[in-house]
Amino acid sequence: MHIRKNCKDLTASERKRLVDALITVKRKGVYDEYVRLHAQYFVADGEGGKRHGHMAPSFLPWHRKMLVAFEDELRKVDDSVTLPYWDWSRDHAPAAAPWTPDLLGGNGREGDHQVMDGPFAYAAGNWPITVQVTDDTFLMRDFGGWANGVTLPTPDDVEEALADPRYDAYPYDSTVTTGGFRNRLEGWTLGADVGWKLHNRVHAWVGGQMTGGSSPNDPVFWLHHTFIDLLWSRWQERHAGRPQYEPSRPLPRGDAQYGRVVSLDEQMDPWRITPREMLDHGRLYQYA
User: Fold this and answer.
1) Model confidence over 157-177: pLDDT tens digits?
2) Which is the CATH superfamily of the domain at 2-287?
3) Residue 154: predicted pLDDT
4) Distance (Å, rounded) from C-alpha 129 to C-alpha 140?
5) SS3 string of 128-183?
6) pLDDT tens digits, residue range 252-284?
7) Are 122 and 115 a contacting pair, CB within 8 Å?
8) pLDDT of residue 47
9) At residue 114, what are phi and psi to the nearest 5 degrees?
10) What is the residue extent of each domain of the chain?
11) 286 three-state secondary structure
C-alpha cells in the first residue's frame, strides 16, 4: 500500500526521485510504449470499434488501470516513488508546482512553444518526443493559449460534477445530455452547456502535446489523470449507495452503441480486466 500525494507537498528528494524514475523509464523505451497505447485507445464517437479509453463509461476505470500499470513501472526503478496529483482546480499559478524547474519545468516559449527549463526541456537531453503526429522532437506547452484562450477549472466546476449522483447515462458517449458524473468529469458537451470542462479543459490549457491522443508525451499527463482518479474516488465515497458503474450489462444487439461500450463485467483492452475489478483502489493505493 502506498500514498499518492499532492505534487505541491512533495519534498525536494521526492521530486528528484520522481523525475529520475520518469527519465529512466523513458530511456528504457517503456515510457513511449504508454504514449503509443494511449493514442491507440483514443477512439472517438465517430470512429468504429469499442471505446475503451475515452468518450465512454470505461474512461475512468481504464485510466485507473493505466495509472497503476505505469506507476508500477516507476516503482520498479525506485519503490519509494508514487504518482502525485496536481489539483488544477486550486493551484493555477504557472510558476508553482508542478511547473517548477526541479519538477516538470514551465511554459513553452513564444513562437514554437518549446519548453526551455526543467529536466524535460529538449536541451537537457532527457526527453526526445518520438511518438506524435508532427515532426517536432521537443516538449511543447502553451498555457491558456489554446482556441483563443482557456482557463483552468475551479472548485465550483468540480463540485458540479461531484454532485451528480448518476455515474453515466445513455448513449454513454460524448453527447450525453441527461447528466452523469463520467461525462461531466471527462468534459464533453452537456445539453445547452456547450464547451470543454474539467478533464478536457486542463488538456487544452496546458497545450502542446497535451491536446492530442499522444498527450502522455508531457509528464503532467500523469499528475492530471491522478487527480481525475482522486475525483472519481471522492465521487464514489459521496454516492456509495448508487450504482458505481453503468451500464451494468452489455447493450442489446441492434442498439447503436452495441459493441462500442464496455459494461461492468466486460474486459477492457489491453488490460484484460473489467471495470468492476477497478472500482476499489483501496487495496492498491490511498490519497493523502
Assistant:
1) 999 999 999 999 999 999 888
2) Di-copper center containing domain from catechol oxidase (1.10.1280.10)
3) 96
4) 10
5) CCCCCCCCCCCCECCCCCHHHCCCCCCHHHHHHHHCCCCCCCCCCCCCCCCCCHHH
6) 999 999 999 999 999 999 999 999 999 999 999
7) yes
8) 84
9) -70, 130
10) 2-287
11) strand
pTM: 0.96
Q: How far apart are CA 8 and CA 15, in angstroms?
A: 10
If we measure between CA atoms, which residue out of 117, 95, 83 comes closest to residue 10?
83
Residue 13: φ, ψ to 5°: -65, -40
Residue 172 to residue 245: CA distance in whole angstroms? 11
Residue indicated by cell numbers 492498491: 284
Cβ-contact 246, 262 below 8 angstroms: no
The residue among 171, 207, 255 whose CA lies nearest residue 99 is 207
Question: Which of these ranges, 23-32, 103-112, 178-187, 239-248, has the smallest mean pLDDT?
Answer: 178-187
